[in-house]
Amino acid sequence: MNLLLRGVTVVDSNSKYNQKLTDLFIKDGIISAFGKKIKIEGKFKEIDCKGLFISPGWFDMQVSFCDPGFEHKEDIESGVKAAAAGGFTGVAVLPDTHPALHSKSEIEYILNRAKGKIVDVHALGAITRKCEGKELAEIYDMHHAGAVAYSDASNPVTDSGVMMRALQYVKLFDGVVFSHPDDVNVSHEGSMNEGVMSTNLGLKGMPSLAEELMVVRDIYLAEYTQSRVHFSLISTARSVDLIRAAKKKGVKVTCGVSSMHLFFDDKELAEFDTNFKLDPPLRTKEDVTALKAGLKDGTIDVIVSAHQPQNIELKDVEFEYADFGAINLQTSFALANSSLGKNNSLETIIEKISINPRKILGLKIQTINENEEANFTLFNSNEEWSFSKEKNKSKSGNTPMFGKKLNGRVFAVFNHNQFIQS
Asked: Which segments in the chain show pLDDT lower than 70?
């Protein structure tokens, strides 16, 4: 495909055209020319990009596509459509499927099913068999099959010895282990953040302490093993402080935050909307402020959607019995942009949703320069829009975002010489 973009602004800290307004020509999937009023011969598609930005294609390293085993919630086909509509050209899928992605054959299944899609689908291998936290999975075989990192999804590895051995194992190939920081002995059967709101609503709380205890443990384990740990989702001010201190000390630690935890706090649960039941739970306004500060100073490395489809039977029940999770691929950028736009540069947001995820996973860093493979997202950071059931590409509808106005709309994505407009 030959594509001419007229008057687009580049947002890419690795590009010599960063922050410049330019025309851009893509020929046969390669960025071939920049400049104003480029003259092109032959057949091509021209797009007026007034008001649009172009950045390296976005990457979400914390999504669930529920395939294999739970395809009634989501599958690779529908997940890719939702990801592309949300501006993503790459994702890493969680391994808590049925069967779990805990051996070479499951990793190969994911990669083969997703081959040739506009969205690159990478697999996170399980740390332990069936994501049960007991016995290490086939980590080395999965590495050779193409697993980009290791996670037990929302199941914390409570056995410190198992976590230590996993960190030692991946050090052989400079791999990274994801930690879901939650001491389940402390947060056991909790439904929301422990605090004033949980008391008012009469719901069992999940203390910040449950997250912070595991953050401390895994920082110590990463320091001891000299290996790499990534906290997939943090949500408390104290977690930010602990990780900030560990980074200053030189511990090999990175972390992510869900865009929902930047936009909402636990007061949203006043109406018992189960679509706000998340893991980790929405915390206090003070925690949200600390998360934003952590993004600004570089303590928090990535922003993720934490896309977790659930069928209606698991959400349309009493709050304490509902499953955790919400779909968020199509609204993740808008949530981050709406909550951070005034205090963080657009370049910083793109770093968190495009450059850093690939850097942590050891993938090629995409860039907007000549002779580079075209892998990009077109978007308008100022356009107001609202998400609706009609726009939803996911098989599931467990989201609190229907009808809410957001700032920042995706226009299109390009990857593997494929172009899809949202």
From this structure: 342-344
pLDDT at 38: 82
Question: pLDDT digit string (tens) for 354-396?
Answer: 999 999 999 999 999 999 999 999 999 999 999 999 999 999 9
Query: Under DSSP, is residue 303 helix (H, G, I), strand (E, B) or coil?
Result: strand
Give the integer Cα–Cα distance in Å for 45 and 96: 41
**Residue 58 in 3-state DSSP?**
strand
Are the beta carbons of 326 and 400 closer than 8 angstroms? yes
What range defines the domain where residue 255 resides?
57-361
**Cα distances (angstroms) measured from residue 261 to each of 195, 257, 289, 353:** 16, 7, 10, 15
245 lies in the same domain as 303: yes
Identify whether residues 85 and 183 lie together within a single domain: yes
Sequence-distant (≥ 6) Cβ neighbours of residue 85 within 8 angstroms: 329, 330, 391, 393, 410, 422
Last residue of one domain, picked from the residues 316, 341, 361: 361
Q: Name the pTM for this structure.
A: 0.97
User: Shortest CA distance to 218 belongs to which of 209, 208, 230, 206?
Assistant: 230
CATH number reported for the structural domain that contains residue 83 in this entry: 3.20.20.140
How many domains are contained in the chain? Answer: 2
**Helices (H), ranges, 341-372:** 346-350, 356-361
